[in-house]
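Reviewers asked in the last cycle whether our approach scales beyond single polypeptides. To address this, we selected a multi-component target totalling 768 residues and predicted its structure end to end. The input consisted of the following lines:
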Amino acid sequence: MFHRVGCFSFFLRSGGVPAPAMRHHLRIRWSLIALVLLGIAGARTGRADLEIEQTGQVASLPQPPSPHWAWVGDPVQRRSVLVDLENGRMLGNLAGGEGLAIALFPRSRRELYMPRTHYSRGDHGERVDALIFFDSTLLTPVGEVILPPKRAILAFTSGGSALSDDDRFAAVFNLTPATSISIVDLEARTFVEEVSTPGCSLVYPAGDRRFAMLCGNGALLLVTLDEAGRVVERTRSAPFFDPVKDPVTEKAARWGETWLFASFEGYLYSVDLSGAEPRFSEPWSLLSEADREASWRIGGTRHLAVHQATGRLYSLVHQGGPDTHKDAGSELWVYDLATRTRLQRIELENPGLTFMGLPIEFGKDWIWPFNRLAGWLLASVPIPIDEVQVTQDAAPLLVTAGTASGGLGIYDALNGEFLRHIYTGNMANLGLQLPSGWAGAAQGGNR
Amino acid sequence: MSAPLRVPVLLTLLVVCGTTAVVRAETPPINYMLQCQGCHLADGAGSPGAVPPLRNLVGKFLRVPGGREYLIRVPGSAQSALSNRELAELLSWIIRRFGPEQDAANLAPFTAEEVGSARGRPLVDVDSVRRDLLRRIAARDLSSSGPEGP
Amino acid sequence: MSWMGRSLGILCALVLAGVTVLLLPVVRAEPPAVQAGEPDPSTPEGDPGAAEYWRYCAIDGYLADCCGGTHTTCPPGTEMSTVTWLGTCTNPADGKDYVISYNDCCGKPPGGRCFVRRTEGERPAYVTHKNNDINWCMGTSSIAYNSTVAVVVGVAASEQSDVSDPGTGEE
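The resulting structure, written as structure tokens, was:
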């Protein structure tokens, strides 16, 4: 019984009142305790206060931007969020207005530009289209240029607008349904003019003073501007593909000065725009005979991506019938553009399940095998992949997104290994942009 | 239908519905619908400020040199997914359908040959060509028999 | 008879009654009248609320039928676009190809129900008149997209065209 008293035996003896000599010792012990307690109390009251903080502080984005950042659009919440692909942290937020939230990212300025369409009463009223200028550190609007209220509202993310390669001018594609492009001087922050481009649509950068468009007969239109941004030339090439038998999709990818287009039947067309005249190469097939027999097809909302430095092409594919060019993909096939050979087939994972923007994950800390079971159950819910992008640094990441989820699947772009899920907080992901070189970040890359 | 089922069912449907890459010859009224009506509308009214009207106007282009070629080279015509013969038939049908009546009556039908030779050069600058043609049409009408009625 | 026996008896009677009721022929509501030329409305190909409805072979958007309208009428308060694109779908009821006008309903928030995206015969956006990824609410007072209809405007590749053909129509 005495052993069980433990530390209390320091103070007490079992039984009755302690003897006089013992009482003296007890008094000292109690005094010691009291001293210690007072000391603790004293320390608490004597410690310095917390520093007084300021309200009104706002975070800013570290500069230069990391190559492992991604802007991800949400058509439900009409915005685009900036997330860090390493740790999933949300860094920033931009509103999109009507249509998808797609921005332009200059390399030489600490800015970004977003073409936006708004109505004065939400869904009706006076329509205003503008190119809004944002500071890339503060993400605050710092200017705008009013555009003709004709901007094309598209359900995909390629070709809606483009920057000249030297960041001097922006072109916004208009559709009324007559087609044209609006030119903005980004240095002077003025509207230059609207260039009529009948029969040709969408806009892709093609140099410092030139933009390329795709025409309904399979030709390329090159629009050349002078130093003030005014059009000096509009030239159609001969058709370089057959828009009836095997059209190319609008979801082009750029490799250096060459634009790559994949056709419905899986042929890759290249257009070299490094010279004054476009040079068209013989298309080659992304699919073998065996692939075609197994009904593999290209498809998606953004189905091509290129890693500039290694010349690797990533192509989203699915199995399906004719006219499934917008179907989401189940595999990503990797090619070497120089040798035109396929290097790898990556089986894509579910990018993660979300509900109302929140990730649905459970069971990760359960005991084996239940921790694996929960993950397996979630992964078996098909969320097909609609978009693919790749970062442009030396340790590149592949990013995959499906519209039905707010999750992203992140892979090692060089070996195809699945790394992690990133949740954007979006209710749907549509509009995946990895702006390499933005505001002076890692070199190289298309936008 | 639940989301996981939708994709395979739709895929099956699309496969079953067969290839749609085949372009089949249609009659001019149907070709007008499939190639033109979406923008120029069923009554040829067009869309103000965006799509030019055909109604009571398209036939006038035949009155001046270059007008016939314009109607073939305007991208909506030149780039249509029609054979030369089908496009020629369609253009003739359009003139007769939308007039003005006098131009429909005097129409020399479009031929596959003239269509084939002109449509390979779709117009890049439609606006100024069209403006110039309309100016010349107005000038011609003024000099020949007074201002054109509505 | 014990109380347990009595309860069992009542229970059995209830179960038997329930089963009998379930087996009785049920008087169902009148099936919707089959419109001439339309497939059986009880099949997905004949149900305008279903993604597989034959007219929707190249639709991209929310079905007006699910958002307050029908497959040929726009929901209340919206404006039907004039410019649009026209495709062709095969009617399984008669095997004919019909020209379908996919007009958008505009000027209201997204309908949000019955999103269907099918791409039969659809072409990229540079073939403007064959693309369904474009917001076709141009030419209305607002480009805000609500939903889409599928209106039959003609019969394709038929000997006798149902479309009135002024002029000779011959060449």
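The domain at 44-156 of chain C is CATH 2.60.30.10 (Electron Transport Ethylamine Dehydrogenase). We regard this as preliminary and will revisit it once experimental data from Aim 1 are available.
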